[in-house]
Design goal:
alpha/beta, Rossmann fold, 2 domains, five-stranded parallel β-sheet, about 300 residues, single chain, five-stranded mixed β-sheet, Alpha-Beta Plaits
Length: about 300
């Protein structure tokens, strides 16, 4: 486990680092609380923070508070306060400000190992809960809620000048697939389509049924259309064969580009209209939202 260790004493840092490294932990020793916080923010692999009550430039209680703000519903960080003081007011204040546990300084090695084993168990459970809360159970891509959370962040970057496109992707004749081959095959198709697309894009979510949404950041219109056509060919999705005949799985795509004043809903609405046009035009194709529609929906 990667641990950020913060203390104003070089002697303490060396001693505790040796204790932790003896059990295979990856330790980042730091004297300064502000610098430690910056490292924690920039390094998502940091899973635990051990801080003394008084590192340089920031109190341990303040660091606990700031680290708790960094930890969120996507990242688990275990915070262990370390102090030579036995004043229970310090313990209570640290726990109230976000520390998960408290240990004496210098720590007893076996006690420290035991507390970090607790940290590993809790972090693993939280990661599982995060996965359950953000992932569509059938396909493994983002669920609707998690997709919209990330989409709002992408829209914030687009407002700052980044290029952004949205795609709505729908499996063609999906009801027919379920009717001819059964719902278990339909589920297999959903998984195969989702995973094939997820292997080529960074942000994809299942919005419901056989409908998926994709966001493409930093890409021109031409590159976005090319990406949609690559997705359309779905190299990892097998053809279907059964007693009722055979069938090739295809998808239709609607694309919209970010416009000033957009929201996630507007962006996806235009892509959805373009998707409807792709379906009406014969399916298995990519349609870009018309320019006038882009203006109308952004107005």
């Amino acid at each position: 486990m990667r641990v950020v260790l913060v203390d104003s004493s070089r002697t303490v840092l060396k001693a505790v680092t040796r204790i932790l490294e003896a059990r295979g932990h990856d330790v980042i020793p730091m004297l300064d609380g502000v610098e430690a916080l910056a490292r924690i923010k920039s390094d998502p692999s940091v899973a635990a923070v051990i801080t003394s009550a008084a590192p340089l430039s920031m109190s341990g209680v303040e660091l606990c508070w700031e680290v708790r703000l960094v930890a969120n519903n996507r990242r688990s960080i275990y915070v262990l306060m370390m102090s030579s003081s036995q004043d229970w007011r310090n313990v209570i204040e640290a726990l109230d400000c976000g520390a998960d546990d408290f240990i004496g300084k210098p720590p007893v090695p076996e006690e420290l190992y035991a507390r970090l084993r607790v940290a590993e168990r809790l972090n693993a459970m939280q990661r599982d809960l995060i996965m359950l809360a953000t992932t569509d159970a059938l396909t493994g891509v983002l669920n609707r809620r998690a997709f919209f959370e990330k989409a709002n962040e992408a829209c914030g970057r687009a407002r700052a000048g980044s290029q952004l496109s949205a795609m709505m992707m729908d499996i063609d004749h999906f009801k027919r697939i379920n009717d001819l081959f059964g719902h278990d095959v339909g589920d297999m198709v959903l998984r195969a389509v989702a995973q094939s697309a997820a292997s080529q894009v960074q942000l994809i979510g299942r919005l419901g049924g056989e409908e998926f949404a994709v966001l493409a950041e930093g890409m021109s219109e031409a590159d976005t259309v090319a990406l949609a056509n690559r997705l359309r060919h779905m190299p990892n999705v097998p053809a279907l064969d059964g007693p009722e005949g055979s069938m090739t799985v295809t998808c239709s795509f609607g694309i919209s580009r970010w416009q000033p004043g957009d929201t996630v809903d507007r962006l996806l609405k235009r892509a959805d209209v373009a998707l409807y046009e792709a379906k009406a035009a014969g399916r298995n194709r990519v349609v870009m939202a018309r320019t006038e529609l882009q203006r109308d929906c952004a107005a």
